[in-house]
Amino acid sequence: MSEVWRGLQPLRVAPGWRIDINSLYAVDPSPETIEWFYGSALVSGHRVHDGLCFDTRWEPEGDPEGAYRVDFLRLAGFGRKRRSTREPTPLGTWTTTSRTALVTALEEFMFTGNLPAGHTAPPPLPNDHDELPDVGPAG
Fold first, then answer.
1. How many whole angstroms separate alpha carbon 90 and alpha carbon 4?
2. Where is the segment annotated Disordered (predicted)?
3. 58 contacts 34 by C-beta, under 8 angstroms
């Protein structure tokens, strides 16, 4: 049995959340460790009852000078306002070069629904006033 799982980055997961992909290891990027930062997603998860979710990757892939990029979204078909489209609603994007800051931001998002300070808001969608996402804590 492989022991690779022991190197995964510890992450506190709030009740109601599922971690869909977990390839985030407790190593920092460097020329010697950059092979740990390939792939379209390092860690992603979603809140089961309302579709709030995040996707984390390293960009540019294979570049030790890159950064973690996190897209915060709401999946279609969850919560009070069901959308007819299957496209997720973007809530914001955030980048950091710090694994510690990344873990803190993901844990806070899962427990509070708050986007990290410094996130970039997405451009408004057509009729966005009818589809404002509620990203607060579960009630």
1. 33
2. 114-139
3. no
Closest C-alpha to 66, from 33, 89, 97: 97
How high is the pLDDT of residue 139?
Answer: 45
With 0-12 / 13-18 / 19 or more C-beta atoms within 10 angstroms meaning exposed / middle / buried, residue 109 is buried
Q: Which structure tokens are listed for 76?
A: 């279609």
* Nearest to 76, CA basis, from 62, 86, 90, 65: 86
Average pLDDT for 80-93 = 73
78 vs 9, 17, 20, 22, CA distance in Å? 29, 14, 17, 23
* 113 within 8 A of 137, measured Cβ to Cβ: yes
| Residues 26, 19, 17: CA angle, nearest 5 degrees | 125
- CA-CA-CA-CA torsion sign (103, 109, 115, 116): negative
120 is written with which tokens?
């970039």
Cα 84–85–89 angle (5° rounding)?
115
